[in-house]
Write a structure and sequence with these properties.
homodimer, 194 residues, mainly alpha, two-stranded antiparallel sheet, 3 strands, 60% helix, elongated, DNA-binding
DNA sequence: GGGCCCATGTAAGTCGTTACATGATTTT
DNA sequence: AAAATCATGTAACGACTTACATGGGCCC
């Protein structure tokens, strides 16, 4: 009954959706859940071994020449996956955003320094959107053809979130340009050069 | 030149804004940056010691009866803070959201199981919004009175983000109720009971 | 033959949470 | 007198990233 680690959750889920190898799992995450549930080789391979030991997955080792371990869910693995998906525990939500922290602390910087952060975040959002629309969207669409509706819905979340963020920062940018036009220099309770 | 740890960034920033003790820093984060830059005692106290060793902060130990270490930024600490705030390195963005992962993997569950996740996330969003409007907003407003514009702007980000999310999930909920009315049962490429 | 993709793994270091332990002061 | 708040810290554990190490197969 020991609960699944974060990486175990995505591994079991992707095996269920058809992924086979550790490499596969990494590649699929990059084209789907990367934004909100990343996983690296350093987590994936050891976790696959642990899951095998716990009999939640089974490895059918290498039939071809190339060294390769193909994993599938055991019945216990299917059960564990379904149990996690349907339980009503707290849903983890972790968010860390350096642009917001810098913005929060920006009152003693110049307007331009603050704007630089906003613009840097917006540039990153654009790159991410290009990624989403170029790399992720086609794969999400493929799924729909095979009866998978939800990966596409979640792809939409990613795009919508990024678009929302960009609009929020665009508005903040305009406000900073306008409101701080007269108070252009550094300021703050403690003075700024001391 | 060794760059600041994540917790060092928020510590230096909050000291600059007037926080004094480790306890203080924790309390202030809870009423401001918690959503996107959490910090726990287990990080804060050891990090304050490290920053003191690195001469970025100075501790004026306990004048009152109660055991208490008051920290202030040194000149090097101010510089390090400003350097980080104005550099143009990548802006960290980390996001982990279990509701989205469950949604992504929900195609072989029943419609009701998927809806349960959506509704659980919406309930959490409502609690968070109440927190924001009840606890965080007043403190953000106080700052404005003292010439701090940006904490309030960032408070707005928190609220706007939560409101956006709730609307997104509300729409998803309606779509799930409608689109999946006929496809109510479990399904999936691999079958669902095996 | 070179470059890219497939494929697996480990080691070191970093970062973080939680629970525990302690105790003074202030408020009710 | 009890409960809440102020205050500091440590230990154990969990999770993650990055860099390193290795090698086969496929395509040009």
């Amino acid at each position: 009954m020991s609960s699944l680690t974060p990486t175990a959750k995505v591994i079991l889920g992707l095996l269920r959706l058809g992924a086979r190898t550790g490499y596969d799992i990494k590649r699929v995450t990059e084209r789907s859940v990367q934004l909100f549930w990343g996983a690296s080789y350093g987590q994936i391979y050891p976790e696959l071994r642990r899951l095998e030991e716990a009999r939640l997955v089974r490895a059918t080792s290498a039939e071809g020449a190339r060294r390769r371990r193909e994993y599938t869910l055991t019945r216990a693995g299917e059960r564990a996956l379904r149990e996690w998906l349907t339980n009503t525990n707290e849903l983890l939500f972790d968010y860390r955003d350096e642009a917001l922290l810098k913005l929060f602390l920006g009152d003693f910087l110049s307007r331009d320094d603050v704007l630089a952060t906003v613009r840097a975040r917006r540039a990153w959002i654009q790159l991410s959107l290009d990624m989403f629309r170029g790399e992720i969207e086609p794969h999400a669409r493929e799924g729909v053809a095979e009866g998978e509706q939800l990966p596409y819905l979640v792809y939409r979340y990613g795009v919508d979130f990024l678009v929302w963020m960009d609009r929020w920062y665009a508005k903040a940018e305009r406000e900073l340009e306008r409101d701080l036009d007269n108070a252009g220099g550094p300021k703050g309770r403690l003075g700024h050069t001391q």
